[in-house]
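Weekly sync notes, structure subgroup
Attendees: PM, AL, DS (notes)

Item 1: joint prediction request from the bench team. They want all two components modeled as one assembly rather than separately. Inputs as received:
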Amino acid sequence: MSLKGLQKTLVRAPQTFKQRFNMGETTKDAVYIDAERRFQELETETKKLHEESSKYFNAINGMLDHQIEFSRAIKEIYSPISGRMSDPDSFKDEGNQAGIQACNEYEEIVKELKVTLQPELGMIQQRVIGPASELMEIIKAVRKTTLKRAHKQLDYDRHRATLKKIQEKPDKSLKDEKALFKAEAEAEQATQDYEYFNDLLKDELPKLFRLEREFVQPLFQSFYYMQLNVFYTLHERMQSIDIGYFDLSLDVEAAFNKKRGDIREETEKLTILHFKTKGSGRPGKPGVSKYAAESKYAQRRKSEDSDRMPPPPYSAEDDGESTVPVGRTRSSSLGSPFLKAAAAKAKGAAPPPPKPKPSRLAGHSVHPTATALYDYEAQAEGDLSFSAGDIIEVTVRGATENEWWQGTLKGKSGQFPGNYIKMN
Amino acid sequence: MSWSGFVKNVNRKTTQVMMKTGPLRHVEKTNDRDYEVEERRYRTLEGAATRLQKESKGYLDSLRAMTASQMRIAETIDAFYGDAGTRDGVSRSYKQAVEDLDAETIKSLDGPYRTTVLEPIMRFCAYFPDINECIKKRNNKLLDYDSMRSKVKKLVDKPDKDPSKLPRAEREAELAKTAYEQLNEQLFTELPQLIDLRVPYLDPSFEALVKIQLRFCAEAYSRMAQVQQYLDADTRENYAQGHLDTKVEQVLSEIRDLSIAGTV
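Output from the run, pasted for the record:
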């Protein structure tokens, strides 16, 4: 702030104070107040228009960029993966050649699309965002004028108050007469200033509103057509996508499910994917302090289960046990994947999910049932939720109760931790 | 960290230092080249899948950002028109179109996008922490094994007074070896399986993404095109000829000419 500005602020301070606390007289011009309110609206709307149009511009660009990047990433997935990048012989053709081809085609289309859209988007930038920011500048200038008017009004009120005070003095001295004269002149000046700005704003704000509407209409129409063009180009290009790799006749989800098959289930059979969750103890395993009252129950359940349970895989491999007796005790403390791995090692194959013992099933045409001991909430897709007391049909029993079991409940099937239930 | 975990950690750190220092390399390091190749392949997969996850999320976010700004623009324009009274109904119909686009098109595509693109990819990426944990454990076990072996070697070279020390160390080495080999074998057989499964696992999502894009573009266009009927027939012509821009410029300069706009 300049020195002059500072001085003015100081001189006006008492009146500002009075105005704020509604002391003394404050001029109110209803017409102006309404115009000012409308101006404020206009100001925020202009700001919004400006911000959003640039956001829009960025979003469209971002969308296309992500499309391209997605295609690049999936191409990386499709490409054969070698552990020795520098050795060309190590590339086995296990990737997805057709997929890579499709990726390239797709990327080409999207890139072309981006190039085609660039002038269109540039036009939004130039013809919508540009004018909108210019308008913003003007609005800022107008805002300054309204501020000036507010100052002049303050001066006007201030000088009038001074004048009034002197006039109301019962007997005036010579000094008072002088002051009166000066005050009159100042009040006159302030009145003129104030009225000039007040009238100017009252006169021109409505004009501004009208012009703004005139301004917005063609702007909006341009924007609309640009948008329409963008969508048209997008539509046209994407429609003409002709990549034999994609089966476009089917619905999104149907095609997905068809193509997907049971690959997820197959993948999730890999034990390394459950290393943490299944491995050395899940947090909140029942039977620990938290369920002190139930721990006895859990204990009993354990002993019962060990009678009924099919023998765990490692003891089935008698030789495996005898050769690595210490290893077994160690690994059992480390968690079940080791057991599975031990079994797998002995058999030399990936561990098949332990099958229920045939003798257990003999006589049961249906699956055995189990009662839930605790509430269990699904923690991943494919988990089975239940609450304590539910009767679950066990379809696949884990090797031990620390494994994930499979079962059905109320028509839903899924996995759940074996130690959360008790076999009936 | 628990006490035993801490002790293990310190021991392993010592082994690592012993492997690196000394001209004689106090502790011999086991190298399993085949396994290392598989681990590198897995790292490549991890990187690619993580990127895929990022991009699939980014796409959805920018799609949403786009419709959200469209909505706010529509609101603003409607507010401008609002003062003049919606005579031609353009702003209303535009607002309606944009709102429909947001409410119906995006919402109806949101579900399929989640189930066919976002969730499968996220789930695939969620496997990595477990695998990484497994790899870490394997490396730790390998360190244990190496350190145990070197201890045995030392005892063989320089027999201790206590004769029971050697067999005990041998047993411990055996034990460490088993633990290590179990994990190594598991990773070695399953990592390639996972890598082989990546294409069938993630491929359907790509097709789904392309289809969702197609559907979005088609619907967005048809919704937007409907607004056109509310505009005068010559508006399009005016737009194409650049008259609209001239008009914008003209009004803008008129506004600029207002004395309140200049710093008086």
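Discussion: Chain B has one domain: 33-231.
Action: AL to compare against the crosslinking data before next sync.
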